[in-house]
Amino acid sequence: MSLTILLLLALGLGLAGWLAGRARAWSFRRSMGASSLAALPSYHAWYVALWIVVPMIVFIAAWSVIAPQLISQHVLASPAAAGLPEFGFKRESMLAEARAVATGAARAVFNADAAALVEPYREAIGRYQTIGIVVALTLGFIGGVWSFLRIKPDFTARTRVERTVMVILLLASLVAILTTLGIFVSLVFETIRFFGMVNPLDFLFGLHWGPDPMANPDNPDPSRYGAIPLFWGTIFIGAIIAMIVAIPLGLMSAIYLTQYANPRMRAWVKPALEILAGVPTVVYGYFAALTVAPFIRDLAVAAGMSNPSSESALAAGLVMGVMIIPFVSSMADDSIAAVPQAMRDGSLAMGATTSETIRRVLVPAALPGIVAGVMLAISRAIGETMIVVMAASTAANLSANPLEAMTTVTVQIVAMLTGEGSFDHPATLSAFALGFVLFLVTLGLNFIALRVVKRFREAYE
Amino acid sequence: MSERLPTRTEAFEARLKKRYAAERRFRLAGIGAIAFSIIVLAFLLGTMTINGIGGFQRAELTVPIDFTEAGIAGDPAVLSQPGGLQNLETGLPSVVQFFAERELGTEGAAELGNGAWREVGAAIVADPALLDRSVVFDLPASANLAAALNGDGSPEMETLAQQLQAEGQLGTGFDVGFLTRADATDPQQVGIWGALKGSILTMIVTLVLAFPIGVLAALYLEEYAPKNRWTDLIEVSINNLAAVPSIIFGLLGLAVFLWIFPSMRSAPLIGGMTLALMTMPVIVISGRNAIKAVPPSIRDGALAIGASPVQVVFHHVLPLALPGILTGTIIGMARALGETAPLLMIGMRAFVASAPDGFTSPATVLPVQIFLWSDEIDRGFVERTSAAIIVLLLFLLVMNGLAIYLRNKFEKKW
């Protein structure tokens, strides 16, 4: 709540500074004539506004991170905190409860011992909130006055504002690098912690997966952390079953839409296929679990299987394949359209039928693009979470039978991080190691695909 | 003059026939592939709609209540206060129970839903004049009776349901509350508003963070960035981020955002920040395409009359590229709206029984709500889940429709 107030305050002050700066610039202009100002009045106004808003926003962002730490330190230093348990879950929950009451998120404490902490919390929150507001206002004020006084008729406000704008633009584009770095660092950091407990070789080449989140975290059983069944399940569902569905259907759809369909049909069918890509994966997952999986089970029973699993790799893979169809078809569409018309015309002029032209000329010529598209589709399929979480099982199984239950890397990430295990347990940390493997594999696939597309595009130019 | 062999030999004809047959088969395969996709799509939407229609309805018992006979006195001034409903808690439930027993019999009245009196109370608060006359209410039935009405309950319950239905006291009605309540444990009591509000709050955070950052980054890369190693690095990381699996962003949110803000588990603020990182690359990529489409002559024209490079971009290029950028943004937001996995990672799967108050209070979002309900074994939840899916799909449809409308309205051929 205080965050919103602070931000509104910053914007309000900025607006005031904007108006004041513009008024001052106009007054120069009126007294000395239009040509005497080095920049338009609005640039002077922006100069003042930036000097108010930027320091305030930077401070608010930093304060919203620092203040909670200061508040809890303050509370822990208060006499009421002396009665808290030394460490562990109970201490955390009591603190959280007292905080919830103090901020008004809860009406009363559940744990009577936590009641004593409410007052210190309330006091600390009030104090640091006041400090935050005062400092933010002071910063804005100082910035505003300083910049306001700097405005002179010969002050080149525009170049200064534009320099700031360029810095902001550069910072915005650095967010992408920071995000990548953040992903990398957080995954690597937790993965190293995990590998401190479980040998990487056991993890990467072990054949049995069955972490026990309740086991003693200090002495994990490395034979329970063999990830090969997960890798196999991921490849089997995402790269084999889903691709058996998606590649022929996607490719044929693309071929029909680019080579045979008349424009009116294309105008209707293409968006319809795109809807298929726009349906949220949780809906596909529900569809797979509710409709497709029981159907496959019934089919298996009818075919004479004695005890088929209700959660099969086939159900998840089939639905995932359908989801990927539009992805494959739009990539194939692009690369077929990139083949020069002369090649098509040449083949037709030789007397080949349309399908012969497509199979012998267009598809081979477009093959690099199609392969790149398939690689992107695979990377998407193996990173897909909700369909497999809902339709595949959590039982790790090293089998080539599509009717058996199987689990994937993403399912296990969800299972490990939404379970009861504590954050220092190897079972929980294994999720980050799995995530790291997934990240590297998808990154590799994407990188290769992008390189292939780039090289292929150059070939015809 | 050499003798010419006939072109159309029998072997040739046979070969030609075969080739034409292959041509037809190939075409059919193409049509078949498209038909398969469309049939699956239609089947998916059809199943959800048929199941979901039931989810918008609930089993209701008809109970006439004669307030003059009940003798409830409610001071309108007291009732209209916040929490005024609580004042009725002592008297009203027994009154409702009494009239239900008179109308439905003991057995039937026992199957009245737990919160039934609240609806009567809410009606009184809304219109105190009701207390002077007799009113017929449609009150929610218990989950067991509702299941029996759908032919899915215990034998005794089904007999009771059939009996009540025959007397016209049990029926299904449109459940307005489904759109205004939050999560609950009983499928008769659940609503979608909590998740919907959570989704809206999360989307606001995502938009406020991802849109400016994405647009500014796109402007920098397309207009100003020098061609060097740094910009290459930025470009590569943006392209890679667009293809990173969404669950990885969830791991990032868990490891970084929840480490910085440990007290904000499952808050829309954290969810929105996580989704913003995911949406930002999409906005950058579509934004760059839109900016690239603005012809250089406009930039040259502005530069020629003395505009600075920043003025060229902010006064001329950006306004012209904005419709294209908006289209890309809406598509990116639609993807974020349907995203589940990263939000599961940061703890948005908690049971939240009331709509979130703000950006920092615990919340859930629509797709996560669907995921949570799909795990419930209670039969009533199947319909509720489908109904929630319909709401989610409608939202996506509106967003995509808006994107297409914008694209068609502002599309320019330079």
UniProtKB/TrEMBL annotation, chain B:
One MF term in the entry's GO annotations: phosphate transmembrane transporter activity
Name the record gives this protein: Phosphate transport system permease protein PstA
Biological classification of the source: Bacteria, Pseudomonadati, Pseudomonadota, Alphaproteobacteria, Sphingomonadales
Compartments in which it is found: Cell inner membrane; Cell membrane
Principal location: membrane
Transmembrane feature ranges: 26-46, 200-221, 241-261, 267-285, 320-338, 385-406
Organism, scientific name: Pelagerythrobacter marensis
Cell membrane keyword on record: yes
UniProt similarity note: Belongs to the binding-protein-dependent transport system permease family. CysTW subfamily.
Keyword Transmembrane helix among UniProt keywords: yes
Signal sequence, start to end: none
Domain ABC transmembrane type-1: 196-403
Name of a matching Pfam family: BPD_transp_1
GO biological process: phosphate ion transmembrane transport
Gene Ontology cellular-component annotations: plasma membrane
Keywords: Cell membrane, Membrane, Transmembrane, Transmembrane helix, Transport
InterPro entries linked to this entry: DUF3333, MetI-like, MetI-like_sf, Phosphate_PstA
Topology relative to the membrane: Multi-pass membrane protein
